[in-house]
Amino acid sequence: MATQEPGWELYRSFLAVMREGSLSGAARMLGMTQPSLGRHIRELEETLGVSLFARSPQGLSPTDLAHALLPHAQAMASASAALKRAAATRHDTISGVVRIAASDMMGVEVLPPMLAAFRQAHPDVVIELSLSNQMENLLRRDADIAIRMGRPTQDALVARNIGKIAMGMYAHKSYVATHGRPKALADLAEHTLIGFDRETAYIRSMRPASLPYTREHFALRTDNDLAALAALRAGYGLAICQCGIAQRDPALLRVLADSFELHMDTWVAMHEDLRRSALMRALYDHLATALIDYATSAVSTKKRAQARSLRAPTKR
């Protein structure tokens, strides 16, 4: 039985060992000596009255209990980071630190110019950009603001729908020069396709029933969206890409524009308690406005053609 409450520094050392896999790696991560970090682990085990690691000549192996404690230590780390961000942020000024969570693709290809514009207007702001295709927990304050593909369901969150981001099928002009363009969806079977490695529930929900587009069809399979985009830009084959990203690259050509288009329902969300912060509210509103502009500018080729025909003068 524990006789006292372990300090956060002990859990921080435990978390570092779990992340790095060794005392030496954890010590380097935290800027500590290896003996000092080892004492932290032993003190935590003694205080909790449990064994967290099995020791062998090959190093430390986490016990089942260590794996059970890991998510709680991660929650403590998130809370500690949120406390530091809050302490560095005045609620009445647009200054301080804010952590944004987004997917790899949004964080690398879409958000940077939006964040640069915000930083230029507010030079006292520091941005922490957490990129992952996993959902960050806003209730646990893993991040302050999140860009999400899908409506948040937690009641304690403030969320704004920025619309549907259009996605189409694209190929690099070098690929088209060699292999031509598919004229119909059925022609995709004759082309080199870039796609996912593991089919998630989100991918299944996005894929239209009419599209014969499964893992077995892909000549390059990856769950890293940036890797897929790089392969598309290299001329490897056809891939689905956000229209707003592809339209910036004249070498990427839209194919099957009249028969294929997907839409990602996109939201900006933050914890409702952050509405009192001038910084959080300003960045939240800035991102929402900028993403709405991005989503509405990335319209399909078909819609642009329809808009041009509506603007064209009629003959009398």
UniProtKB/TrEMBL annotation:
Keyword presence, Methyltransferase: no
Keywords from the named record: DNA-binding, Transcription, Transcription regulation
InterPro entries linked: LysR-type_TF_proteobact-type (IPR058163), LysR_HTH_N (IPR000847), LysR_subst-bd (IPR005119), WH-like_DNA-bd_sf (IPR036388), WH_DNA-bd_sf (IPR036390)
Positions of the HTH lysR-type domain: 12-63
Source organism superkingdom: Bacteria
Gene3D superfamilies with a match to the protein in the record: 3.40.190.290, Winged helix-like DNA-binding domain superfamily/Winged helix DNA-binding domain
Similarity remark: Belongs to the LysR transcriptional regulatory family.
Protein name: LysR family transcriptional regulator
Species classification: Bacteria, Pseudomonadati, Pseudomonadota, Gammaproteobacteria, Lysobacterales
